[in-house]
Amino acid sequence: MRVTLGGMFAMWVGASALAAPRVSVSDYGVTADGRAVHVYTLSNDHGVSAKILDYGGIISELNAPDRRGQSKNVVLTLPDLKAYESNGGLNSLMGRYANRIKGGFTIDGHHYDLASNPKGVTLHSGRPVYGAMVWAAQTVRDANRAGVTLSRVSPDGEQGFPGELHIDVTYTLNDANDLGLEYEATTDKPTVVTLTNHVYFNLAGNGSGDVYGQQLQVLADQYTPTDMDQVPTGELAPVAGTALDFRQLTPIGARIRSGEQQMLFARGYDHNFVLRKPAGDLLPLAVRMYDPGSGRLLELRTTEPGVQVYSANNMYGSVISAAGTTLRQGDGLALETEHFPNSPNEPRFPSTLLRPGETLRSSSVFHITTDVAACLGPTKRSARPSPH
Asked: How far apart are CA 32 and CA 317, in angstroms?
């Protein structure tokens, strides 16, 4: 059973919020099959803003100032709706089961087959793709934050999964520069669920080139090794002594060309890290990403047990960004908070089983700041920032 404690995100942001931010809505375009799409702009008084599409729950922009107050969009962004329709998945919601499942899954003795590649692997649940759906939307406003809740009902059997699944995903921004994502889901039949947003970050700005000189820290002592099909073997292995050791802030490109077998399987980073879960911490720190050039610092907290770190290994320069540049391998880093890949088939992994009467609740918070605000001055860039 997987039911996280409700209200964790609200408790955490409530303690840090300073004033009420704003949300506005405007037309974004019409899909090829005639569906109207809107963009919800969340903004605060500190120069941070986010744009969320009701098409796929796409985070189309996240604008944040650098240490000198100059603002840039720090997620990879495409120029328009047509581009998002042609290149599904960028910064969008993933479900019912984010990441990989091999050979379907079994619940209570009943086996469910899923659409898969020739090796039997299903990635992000196949079609229809959550990132290509227009979700119902409702704005959210309270004393501490503003945002939008996206909702849909996934019918029984969609993508091969049992149960009618009711999903709400709420995006909010507060005046402490926290972009929060809260996921809730209920089902009328036993099913498996893990939801995420496949958002790509580049703290130097969209279209600025690769992120290899930016630094990463993942608060994880273990990861889940994979086979050649990038499906976990079931093992929990130490990161120590491997190319996946990001326990301290380390340049992302320092070991990107490692000849270790895990790096060869993925052609870079595409791995699930087993996050530390300190007792009593309802929303623990999971990841830091830092750009020494701009001074921007991203801190990710999550209730999820894992984070998939992906270095955009399948971007080959065939897609043009909103900045007019082609997107290539390493131009962004995806940080997907989720349960482990292939969990339904690995008894050692945290369960993704959801039964009628239970509610899946999951929270992730992206805190954007600078090295100056975090007491990490430009002359101390190699130091480790203090947590908030």
From this structure: 24
